[in-house]
């Protein structure tokens, strides 16, 4: 009787608890197709005023139609004439590509007063998701019992290609099958790719990257990280490469921009093309990252940054050439270094081990599940034990050596040797025209931002690192140069080899590359850098096979693990990010960084002035100083801050690839642009911490303030809908 009464009281308690549960966690980068499965009541309580169909609807205009995959990040349409807004650091490659010592748009900024002055950027495309259709059953129908991991991978790839071709048909769409939940589910994603993208406006780096590496991944932040580009199509409305006859693209949906701002606790959401997360990786996989891969790559990238920056200090032309590259490398370096620190400080490894123990205990209560999934964690551990035998060598050959542009060019020419075929007219062995065009495009692009002296130092540094690889992972092509030498003898051997290599090759100039591309296979193969590439490939080729076998093996194991994990959770969960469109939501919110340190939710123009030192990267343009001094703020003052806001933080769950993603209020208006995460939340790719994880965004009001008060760009403002 007593036990029955106790169960009754527990039942009442649980029922009551369900009524007073806090709002759903803001963790998660959700697929647009999952929106109907989220608790919309809870989102409405946070301040969302839209329906799921108003955010994602493949059959009618919705916010999703305004979101574009742009360069290495995300952008959004903000006018009916294809005007897009993104981050300065997403568009910086475009700005760099049109800059020179005499016309330095990086330093001075860029603004096209008319559409005729907008500059074509051939290296940028803008992709819009048209449809996402689940094709899991179709893909997995190609898999049969008893297939090896490699056979299974090839069967899935072949079936995916078949589905992609069928979906594309005669349309202009790009179609690809993408796995989610590590192969538990598959979706066919159809996109429209706009090929004529032009640079419209970008602030000077003193605004667009204010704070530089010092402030990167840090809050408080005072960076005006925004830029504008425009998408064009042919006169008949179809995607087309640049032509003076092309016309602005008219999107199905574009975002209004809020001038009203927000306050602490305001609802915010974001749609963007999230890069990669590892939230469902096992403790074994995380341990490999912490102990080996991340430290190794952190050291490699820091060395690369230091070498390039030293050269940039001495030569303005070199500084321009390497600006975008070093910014990207620095971002990656700080991200890896922060992730390494964050994983350790948040004790992610032990948390994951505890979760795995609970998962294992659950399986033991379900005999059928235990039989199917009971060994999967141990099997993943065994696979990673094998990977440790060649991981550093693989990283050195695929990442480290490709730091050198000349190694990359040498690889391009080595690979083209396989393409020689008998010409149908002359009967001579030639490179097919399409393949030759690919080769020429590749080395032309590399040479645009290449300096031979910088490259020599980079290659020398990487060779020295390679010489120190552990026994069993040495690179033969480099060991022949370095042997067992150390100290000055090692430096001398590398210098002599590198000097001779660069002196004798024809590939250090664009003209030399063009000339060699017209030669026969024997002449190409005789070039010293092609020879070096061939030697490196003899080391890499067997590792490529080992890596492919490892990926097939772990791919199947991760699928099994996720199947079991989803049964264990028995609720809707989001998949790891994989560079597809995702939805996340949260609130504008301050946070406690650590003991006695509280950070507010917004920064202002006054804060930028307080940070200024007069030395890079804390230089404020004189015109911006004047606007601040005269309090010439226009309508862009936040009433609570009594200042022009620059940046803010919100509890949005993002990762790389989300740069430039629109931060949107509950009514569907753009309030900011995501451009960074915070240092305290650097474990985010592996583990979400709601107390400290924050997305840093550039306030839309600062963007408008710049256009209006700093530039006087009324032509752009008139295109937009301001609310």
Helix content, binned percent: 40-55%
* Rounded average pLDDT: 95
The major sheet is characterized as: 11 strands, antiparallel
Helical stretch count? 27
What would you say this structure looks like, in words?
- There is one protein chain.
- The protein has 723 residues and is of the alpha+beta class.
- The chain has three domains: 30-125 and 195-275 and 576-595 and 648-723, Thrombin, subunit H; 130-190, no CATH class; 283-556, no CATH class.
- Helices cover 47% and strands 15% of the residues.
- The strands form four sheets. Strands 1, 2, 3, 4, 5, 6, 7, 8, 9, 10 and 11 form an eleven-stranded antiparallel β-sheet that branches. Strands 15-12-20-21-22-19-18 form a seven-stranded antiparallel β-sheet.
- A hairpin with a 6-residue loop joins strand 13 and strand 14.
- The longest helix has 42 residues, at 528-569.
- The protein is globular.
Considering the chains and any ligands shown, give keywords for the structure:
723 residues; alpha+beta; Thrombin, subunit H; 3 domains; eleven-stranded antiparallel β-sheet; seven-stranded antiparallel β-sheet
Please summarize what this structure is.
With 723 residues, the protein is of the alpha+beta class. It is built from 27 helices and 22 strands. Helices cover 47% and strands 15% of the residues.
Helix-strand layout with pairing:
Blueprint: H1 2-19, H2 40-46, H3 52-55, E1 67-70, E2 73-77, E3 83-86, H4 88-97, H5 105-108, E4 110-111, E5 119-120, E6 126-134, H6 136-140, H7 149-168, E7 174-180, E8 185-194, E9 196-202, H8 205-208, H9 212-215, E10 227-233, E11 247-248, E12 267-273, H10 283-314, H11 316-345, H12 348-364, H13 367-373, H14 376-387, H15 391-400, H16 405-416, E13 421-422, E14 429-430, H17 433-448, H18 452-467, H19 476-482, H20 487-504, H21 510-517, H22 521-526, H23 528-569, E15 581-587, E16 591-594, E17 597-599, E18 602-604, H24 605-611, H25 622-629, E19 645-650, E20 662-664, E21 670-677, E22 695-699, H26 700-711, H27 714-719
Antiparallel strand pairs: 1-2, 1-6, 2-3, 3-10, 4-9, 5-9, 6-8, 7-8, 9-10, 10-11, 12-15, 12-20, 13-14, 16-17, 18-19, 19-22, 20-21, 21-22
């Amino acid at each position: 009787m007593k036990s029955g009464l106790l169960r009754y009281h527990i039942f009442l308690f649980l029922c009551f608890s369900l009524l007073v549960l806090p709002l759903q966690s803001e963790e998660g980068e959700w697929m647009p197709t999952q929106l109907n499965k989220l608790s919309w009541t809870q989102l409405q309580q946070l301040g969302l005023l839209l329906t799921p169909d108003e955010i994602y609807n493949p059959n009618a205009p919705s916010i999703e139609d305004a979101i574009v995959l742009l360069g290495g990040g995300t952008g959004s349409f903000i006018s009916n004439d294809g005007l897009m807004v993104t981050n300065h650091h997403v568009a910086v490659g475009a700005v760099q590509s049109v800059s020179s010592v005499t016309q330095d748009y990086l330093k001075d900024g860029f603004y096209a007063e008319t559409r005729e002055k907008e500059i074509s950027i051939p290296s940028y495309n803008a992709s819009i998701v048209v449809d996402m259709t689940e094709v899991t059953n179709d893909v997995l129908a190609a898999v049969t019992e008893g297939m090896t991991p490699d056979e299974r991978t090839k069967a899935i790839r072949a079936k995916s290609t078949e589905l992609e071709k069928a979906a594309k048909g005669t349309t202009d769409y790009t179609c690809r099958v993408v796995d989610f939940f590590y192969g538990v589910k598959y979706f066919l994603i159809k996109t429209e790719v706009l090929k004529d993208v032009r640079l419209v406006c970008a602030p000077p780096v003193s605004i667009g990257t204010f704070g530089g590496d010092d402030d990167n991944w840090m809050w408080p932040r005072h960076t005006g990280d925004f830029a504008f580009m425009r998408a064009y199509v042919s006169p008949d409305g179809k995607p087309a490469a640049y032509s003076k006859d092309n016309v602005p693209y008219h999107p199905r949906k574009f975002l209004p921009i809020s001038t009203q701002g927000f306050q602490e606790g305001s609802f915010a959401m974001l749609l963007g093309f999230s890069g990669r997360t590892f939230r469902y990786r096992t403790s074994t996989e995380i341990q490999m990252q912490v102990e080996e891969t991340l430290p190794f790559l952190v050291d490699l990238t820091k060395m690369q940054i230091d070498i390039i920056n030293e050269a940039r200090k001495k030569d303005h032309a070199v500084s321009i050439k390497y600006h975008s590259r070093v910014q990207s490398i620095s971002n990656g370096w700080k991200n890896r270094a922060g992730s390494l620190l964050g994983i350790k400080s948040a004790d992610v490894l032990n948390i994951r081990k505890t979760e795995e123990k609970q998962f294992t205990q659950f399986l033991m209560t379900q005999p059928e599940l235990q039989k199917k999934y009971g060994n999967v964690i141990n099997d993943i551990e065994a696979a990673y034990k094998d990977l440790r035998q060649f991981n550093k060598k693989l990283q050195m050959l695929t990442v480290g050596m490709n730091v050198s542009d000349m190694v990359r060019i040498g690889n391009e020419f080595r690979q083209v040797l396989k393409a020689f075929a008998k010409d149908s007219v002359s009967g001579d062995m030639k490179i097919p025209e399409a393949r030759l065009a690919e080769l020429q495009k590749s080395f032309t692009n590399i040479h645009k931002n290449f300096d031979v002296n910088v490259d020599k130092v980079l290659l020398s540094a990487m060779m020295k690192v390679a010489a120190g690889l552990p026994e069993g992972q040495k690179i033969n092509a480099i060991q022949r140069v370095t042997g067992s030498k150390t100290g000055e003898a090692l430096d001398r051997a590398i210098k002599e080899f590198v000097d001779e290599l660069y002196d004798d090759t024809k590939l250090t100039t664009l003209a030399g590359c063009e000339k060699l591309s017209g030669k026969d296979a024997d002449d190409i193969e005789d070039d010293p850098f092609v020879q070096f590439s061939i030697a490196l490939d003899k080391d890499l080729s067997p590792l490529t096979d080992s890596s492919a076998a490892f990926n097939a093996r772990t791919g199947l194991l991760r699928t099994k693990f996720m199947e079991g994990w989803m049964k264990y959770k028995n609720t809707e969960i989001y998949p790891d990010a994989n560079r597809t469109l995702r939805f996340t939501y949260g609130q504008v919110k301050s946070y406690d960084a650590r003991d006695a340190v509280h950070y507010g939710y917004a920064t202002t123009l006054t804060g930028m002035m307080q940070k200024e030192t007069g030395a890079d990267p804390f230089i404020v343009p004189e015109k911006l100083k004047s606007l601040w001094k005269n309090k010439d703020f226009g309508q862009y003052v936040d009433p609570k801050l009594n200042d022009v806001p620059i940046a803010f933080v919100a509890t949005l769950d993002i990762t790389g690839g989300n740069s430039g993603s629109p931060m949107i209020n509950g009514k569907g208006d753009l309030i900011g642009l995501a451009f960074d995460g915070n240092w305290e939340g650097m474990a985010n790719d592996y583990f979400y911490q709601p107390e400290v994880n924050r997305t840093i965004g550039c306030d839309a009001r600062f963007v408008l303030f710049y256009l209006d008060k700093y530039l006087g760009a009324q032509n752009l403002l008139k295109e937009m809908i301001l609310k």
